[in-house]
Design a protein that fits this description.
By secondary structure, this protein is an all-alpha fold. Helix content is about 75%, strand content about 0%. It folds into 4 domains: about 1-160, no CATH class; about 165-370, Methane Monooxygenase Hydroxylase, Chain G, domain 1 (Up-down Bundle), CATH 1.20.58; about 395-535, no CATH class; about 540-715, Methane Monooxygenase Hydroxylase, Chain G, domain 1.
């Protein structure tokens, strides 16, 4: 019960609830204020503008949000004016819907933030379709809508200005919770009743979430001027925590073993259960840290796994001494990894219990110039828009599909849909249609289920709670729920949204429109689903080779950094971390593409078993490379024996050959061309060199396995 209570508290501390609260206040305030001044219609129109602009108000640096909402307001006004006049004739309205649907859907080429600006513009187009405005009223109406959008922009900036660090804290806390789940999945590998293949599927799925949240934290920390330029204690603690978290995640990624073999060798000893239990306890501590960051509280409690680690060490020593013919080296490596994880957890706890703020501020002051290297920059050059005017572009096909389907939806709404809210058909289409089939299918299912369930709930509220004050309180609660779950769980969001819309229409004197809303949603969902399958469909197998190429390139570049180190060249920590980040981001992209492929029709899941094998092998390869990188980077520069250099060169050659088969470019590694210059230099072989040779041998074997799977994929 305690865990459930804390989960509920965590939700109320989270950015999701904060977003829901901000959006609800921002949308409702103009209506409530102007209602008191007897200008309710004007207030509703302003709220409409705020509703459209709030779609752009997604997490990110404050100046990105400001610029995006400012541009969104410009399009809001322009589209409102165009639609106000175009709606006077059914043919001009149809032409406008077709052209603007294409134009604003193409904004996806500039990333999610730009895509949300396109969505904002399409929303106001849809809402303006049925506005009863005379030609001489269009400009005034559009200005009122713009006023609502500007109000929301200013309100959002003030909201974040009051607590500038809060969004970063919330995103960081959620990122820590993601890593805790990743550790729990890792722990399951040591339990004999866990299916290894299925657990790998969960692992790569969770890796996608970790990567996405880490990118969000990077944006907030390293693109926000207040975080990077101001050496304040809160910002420094968050930066230090995040840097340690990324290193911790690498350590967890690097702890890969042949779990089938380990189970077979040590199942009877009971030591694997001890390891799994320790990992679960460490995951609990990470959850404690996540809650501490989310709630912005300090915790005097400090984790102590020393007793458990000592018991594990004694058990491992017993196995080595008593079990005949069984080597305990793998168990010792696991113990070392667990100790490292323990130290990193304690290190993060120290940031939140240390009274010496000045030390924390000084510790990382010299790294400011390096932070920007870890953030992905979005290019907004005009040529990108026009370069995508090709059927090879997913964005172009998506935009054509949206354009045609919106035209079909418009015609259908005019002649088939019920009542006076036929724009719900178009609204459903805009919300559901996504660039890929799997995302459209998922959103379609969620929208239908949520609308039907919410419709039933809405009827119950209106029938059994006739009191207007109680309905208004419920309206506010439902609005907060709608916007809080919008990014967290879309089904729940729609379940909240439908009764909130029904109550709102009741207050506006429209009456009970649940039947109309459900039927319009079903019509829109049906059109969108059929269109995503038949009209310029985008299937994951068409793009999967691009993902495979990118992840191979990233691993080759990561291996090259190791090669440079063991050749005796100085490779900075920043270079290692940039190469590591690239591997994890590209791996997450591949895993996400594979997940989407699994929800597509069976006939479109081409080579899915082989792709799954590639995803798992890539995870193993990245883990082995991370293991070597962490050990090489932490030691002084050294030259390795010729055999080790040959192994790494061979692995790179195998991976480059895979890229050729996938129609990719070979990654040229300049430093390896000078390999012969050091081959003649004699060097005594140390234990570190022998361990490195063994690890590079594993990498060579995995690279060979990847080559075989690649042959199967391209055949």
């Amino acid at each position: 019960m305690k865990i459930d209570t804390r989960e509920i508290k965590s939700f109320f501390y989270s950015q999701y609830f904060s977003d829901g609260l901000r959006m609800t206040i921002g949308i409702l305030f103009p209506s409530l204020l102007l209602m008191q001044l007897n200008h309710f219609d004007t207030g509703i129109t302003m709220s409409l503008g705020a509703l459209c602009i709030c779609t752009i108000d997604s997490p990110g640096p404050l100046y990105h949000k400001r610029n995006a909402m400012a541009i969104g307001n410009l399009f809001l006004f322009i589209v409102a004016v165009i639609t106000g006049f175009a709606r006077l004739n059914v043919f001009t309205l149809g032409i406008e819907i077709t052209l603007l649907s294409f134009l604003f859907s193409m904004f996806t080429v500039y990333g999610n933030r730009a895509a949300s600006i396109g969505t904002c513009a399409l929303l106001i187009m849809i809402f303006m379709m049925d506005k009863e405005a005379k030609p001489n009223e269009v400009l005034t109406l559009s200005l009122i809508i713009l006023a609502g959008g500007i109000w929301y922009l200013l309100f959002s900036l003030i909201f974040f200005g009051i607590r500038p660090y809060r969004a970063a804290q919330q995103t960081l806390g959620e990122s820590i919770a993601d890593i805790a789940k990743f550790v729990r999945i890792k722990a399951d590998f040591y339990l004999s009743d866990t299916d290894i293949d299925e657990n790998y599927r969960k692992l790569v799925s969770q890796q996608v979430k970790v990567s996405q949240h880490q990118d969000a934290v990077r944006e907030l920390l390293f693109k926000s001027r207040i975080m990077v330029k101001e050496s304040t204690n809160p910002s420094r603690i968050m930066v230090l925590t995040f840097v340690d978290l990324v290193d911790m995640f690498e350590q967890i990624m690097a702890t890969h073993y042949d779990y089938g073999q380990i189970r077979e060798k040590f199942k009877a000893t009971g030591v694997l259960k001890q390891i799994a239990d320790l990992l679960q306890e460490m995951a609990d501590e990470l959850d404690n840290i996540a809650y501490m960051v989310l709630s912005n509280k300090r915790n005097k409690h400090k984790p102590d796994f020393n007793t458990g680690l000592e018991k594990l060490k004694l058990r491992i020593d017993e196995i080595g001494a008593n079990e005949q013919g069984i080597s305990n080296i793998a168990l010792k490596k696991i113990l070392i990894n667990l100790r490292d994880l323990n130290e990193r957890i304690k290190s993060i706890y120290n940031y939140y219990s240390s009274k010496s703020a000045e030390i924390l501020v000084e510790k990382n002051d010299n790294d400011n110039s390096e932070y920007s290297k870890f953030v992905t920059r979005q290019d907004y050059a005009p040529h990108i828009f026009f370069d995508n005017f090709s059927f090879n572009s997913t964005a172009f096909k998506h935009s054509l599909r949206v354009s045609l389907v919106c035209l079909i939806g418009f015609v259908t709404a005019k002649y088939i849909a019920l009542g006076h809210h036929s724009y719900w058909v178009l609204l459903t289409i805009i919300v559901i249609l996504k660039p890929g089939f799997s995302l459209s299918k998922q959103r379609n299912y969620q929208r239908l289920i949520g609308t039907i369930a919410g419709g039933i709930g809405g009827i119950a509220v209106l029938l059994f709670i006739p009191d207007k004050d109680a309905q208004f309180i419920l309206l506010i609660i439902l609005m907060i729920g709608t916007y809080s779950f919008l990014r967290l769980n879309y089904v729940v969001s729609v379940i909240f949204m439908t009764p909130y819309v029904l109550i709102l229409f009741k207050f506006l004197g429209v009456g009970l429109v649940v039947k109309e809303r459900i039927i319009d949603t079903i019509i829109g969902s049906s059109i969108a689903f059929i269109a995503s399958y038949l009209i310029f469909p985008s299937w994951e197998f068409e793009q999967i080779q691009q993902n495979l190429r990118e992840v191979i390139n990233a691993n080759v570049s990561y291996l090259a950094k190791i090669a440079e180190s063991i050749l005796g060249r100085e490779v900075s920590t920043i270079e290692y971390k940039l190469a590591r980040k690239d591997v994890y981001v590209k791996s997450a992209n591949l895993s996400a593409a594979f997940e989407r492929m699994t929800s597509e029709p069976k006939s479109k899941q081409r080579k899915i078993k082989e792709v799954h094998k590639f995803v798992v092998l890539n995870h193993i390869l990245s883990s082995y490379i991370a293991t070597i990188a962490s050990s090489v980077a932490s030691k002084a520069l050294h030259r390795a024996p010729v055999e080790n250099l040959k192994l790494i060169k061979k692995s790179i050659a195998i991976l480059n050959d895979c890229n050729k088969k996938l129609d990719g470019d070979v990654v040229e590694i300049g430093s390896l061309k000078t390999l012969s210059a050091v081959e003649s230099e004699p060097k005594a072989v140390s234990s570190d060199d022998l361990l490195l040779k063994e690890q590079l041998g594993f990498i060579n074997k995995i690279s060979t396995d990847i080559a075989r799977v690649t042959d199967s994929i391209v055949s």
